[in-house]
Structures are given as structure tokens and as C-alpha cells.
Amino acid sequence: MIFALLFDMDGLMVDTEPLYTEAVQELLKNKGREFTLEIKQEMMGRLGIDSMRIFKERLSLSQSPEELLEERGIVYDRLLRERGVKPMPGLFELIHLASSLGLSLAVASSCRKKWVDLILSELNIRERFKAILTGDDIKQGKPDPEIYLKAAERLGILPQHCLVLEDAPSGIISGKRAGAKCIACLTVNIQRALSSKKQI
């Protein structure tokens, strides 16, 4: 039996992935490096600092992951506020349906709390979620199961009675490791993982 839906946010609830890509590309101006799809896929769904470690290593950048994260955060924050928030098709309908079925809802996002709060407020759906977990609430990012275990605990529901909705391979692995049922929403990220025959 499923008693709760646990939502990832970036790329699943809202179309923020182009903003992250643009922010990272801006970091690479005058650095003579190329941000490839393979690197992007490896970074997807992870804590910011973890993704910046991958970014630094794959592109042999001189800045520290902390410096890169801070720089990316400044650019991303500006882009998010300038461009606004775009919900993914069907988001509001799914939330309404799940609520009408009596399911508890939670957000489990690797994104920083200030951006999760901004996005949920802009979409006017914050009150629909009984639990909101962000990257600021955890020590281990996806694919570690910590965030989904904590989300289930906040709801007071065992993980095996939760359904995780994800668009990134690292998130699917995280949900499965937590013991939850998972649905990999067929976004570009999942399609690339499947085409490369990665285990998710």
C-alpha cells in the first residue's frame, strides 16, 4: 500500500535544469572548458557541493568546490529570480489527485532551502506538503538514501509505503536504497541513463 508521495523538485516539479546549465556555463567563460552532457548527467540530483566536486574534477578547474558552488549560486539565484518558476506539465493536477486520494506529500530536494522555499511559494503550493526536506537538512546527498529516509520519518510513514518520484538516476538510487517504491519520470536525464545502459 502507498500512503505518501515523495517529490524530487529540480527537473521534476519545476523546469530549473536549463537555469543550472546556464549558470555552470557562465562559470566556464574564459576558462577554455566545455560542459558536456556526460558531466551534467553525473552532477544531476546531487548536493551542490558534491556536484561541484565532480565539476572541478572532470574539468580540472583550479578553484575549490566551495568557491565554485558559491559562484554558481550567485548566478543561479539571479537567473531564477529574473526568469521565474515554470512548473512541469501535470504538476498541479498530480498534487490535486494525490491529495484527493488522501496521500501525504513531501518534497525531498537536494536544492538549498532558500530556493526550495522560493519555488514552492512562487507556485503557491507550499501548504500542500506535510514535509519539506532540502539539501540543508542532510549530510549525505543522493544517491545516499538519507533524504528519503528523513522525509518518510517526518511524515510518520514507513519508507516501503512511500512512492518516490524522480527524474535523475542518483535520485532513483536514493529512493530505492531507502526502501521506497520509485517511479523514474521519463525526462531527458532518465532517457540518457537508459540509453547508456546505466543501472538505476
Shape: globular
At CATH level 3, the topology of the largest domain is Rossmann fold
N- to C-terminal separation? 23 Å
**Shape-level CATH architecture of the largest domain:** 3-Layer(aba) Sandwich
CATH class of the largest domain: Alpha Beta
Under CATH, the homologous superfamily of the largest domain reads HAD superfamily/HAD-like
Q: Beta fraction of the residues?
A: 5-15%
The main pleated sheet reads as: 5 strands, parallel
Quaternary arrangement of the chains shown?
Answer: single chain
Alpha-beta content class: alpha/beta
| Structural domain count | 2
Name the helicity range. Answer: 40-55%
By DSSP, the count of extended strands is 5
Unreliable spans are 190-194
**Major β-sheet strand ordering:** 3-2-1-4-5
Mean residue pLDDT? 90
DSSP helical segment count = 9
- Overall radius of gyration: 16 Å
Query: What's the helix-strand series?
Result: EHHHHHEHEHEHEH
Topology:
Layout: E1 4-7, H1 17-27, H2 37-43, H3 48-59, H4 65-83, H5 91-100, E2 104-108, H6 113-123, E3 131-133, H7 146-155, E4 162-166, H8 169-178, E5 181-184, H9 188-195
Parallel strand pairs: 1-2, 1-4, 2-3, 4-5
Helix pairs in contact: 1-4, 2-3, 3-4
